Amino acid sequence: MNASMTPRERIRAALRFQNTDRTPRDLAGMRSTGISAFAYPDLVRALGLPPRLPRVYDVGQMLALPEVDVLDALDCDVVPVEGDVCTNAFDEPERWHEYDFGGRLPALVRNPGQFTLRDDGTVTASSSGRADGEHDLRMPTGSYVFDALHGGQPIDLESDLHMDDLELVRERQADAVPSRERIEAVGAYCERARTATSRAIMFAGLSAHLGYPGGFPHWSMICLTEPDYVHAYHEIVTDTAVRQIEALLPRIAGSIDLLMLNADDQGLQDRTILPPALFRELYVPYYRKVTAAVHRIAPEVKCFLHSCGAVYDLIDDIADCGFDVLNPVQWPAGGRTAAEWRARADGRLVLWGGGVNTQSTMPLGTITQIQDEARRTVASLGDGGGYVFCAIHNLLAEIGGEKVVAMYGAVE
């Protein structure tokens, strides 16, 4: 083991597959390693910290942005920086305003005007975050997240598949490169975060622009039936991504450690969404183009992919994409073990997550079962560096604070 490290040193060592003084830890370094705003007050209570209103920084998932004292108490090593609008590396009280979600959750939000309380207790919201935006999200009484009609992914099996005209796609991308003013604002924000914290910084604000446009069912069928269209579409959007990276990354590279490059779920509970060979054909070359641009401009900045589900069969392909980090390490999906994931990653991918199963163990298990699973996972994934601990995806509303404290406390 090394002598005591700073949080940033600890994460950077793990990203280089080096041993660390203890297992690196994350809570809310990105929007799939966080905690529900409904669960957050109980975590604060369980840690013995002063009560406070949770800052809801992800409205759809209703996620809380943890304060520094919570990260300190849990020994967490990462903070997010989202463009120039959100971080917990330093306090920005002027950006947060009270809203109580119909009396269900006194909280702080960035724009109370984006919400409306209906007579039946449902809260509606604009996904754009603007007060004048379409209210396309709703959180009924009894729900703990916002959702859209059909989960935001409607599909009509009686009609032909809709495919955007590629020339229109290209035109929409024409002005996507940030302005000099925007680049400077984001750069200054990242610099402020860098000087404010000794934790590693995960930046969200550049993307590969790949995924499932129009929804999983719709885009999956296009991939299967119109691969030439997908190639052309991916060529356009990744060209844009590279231009954005070339414009912004040189300004922020010295202030960040990880680039949250894409949240692109490729797994179901028991298998991949697309056949692995199709993912290899339609996605790998385009991801590689984007990650190559990042590594050329900023060799020390690591590319982070979030991809849920049973993606074990894609691990080699994800490494071939040029990603450095894979999250959430959902090893129970597909019936694999954490040890199998570690062996398959084999020093090519840092594994970030996988700590405790948030679908079963966290909500249904005892504290002892949570601790045992956390220890087993770290024993399988954490030997020799290349691992950062957190739960498999976000800690949801029903998770009591003592369980969260026990999960992190079990990790050495």
Characterise this structure:
The protein has a single domain, classed as TIM Barrel (Alpha-Beta Barrel). It has helices spanning about 5-15, 40-45, 70-75, 165-175, 180-195, 215-225, 225-250, 275-280, 285-295, 315-320, 340-345, 360-365, 365-380, 400-410, and strands at about 35, 55-60, 65, 80, 85, 95-100, 105-110, 115, 125, 135-140, 200-205, 260-265, 300-305, 325, 350, 385-390. An eight-stranded mixed β-sheet has the order 5-4-11-12-13-14-15-16. The chain has a three-stranded antiparallel β-sheet with strand order 1-3-2, with no helix packed on it. It is an alpha/beta fold and about 400 residues long.
Enter the CATH topology name: TIM Barrel
Placed side by side, the strands forming the largest sheet appear as 5-4-11-12-13-14-15-16
How many helices in DSSP terms?
14
Query: Average pLDDT, to the nearest integer?
Result: 95
Shape field: globular
Strand content bin: 5-15%
- Total DSSP E strands: 16
How many structural units, i.e. domains?
1
**Main sheet overview:** 8 strands, mixed
The CATH architecture can be named as Alpha-Beta Barrel
* Terminus-to-terminus distance: 12 Å
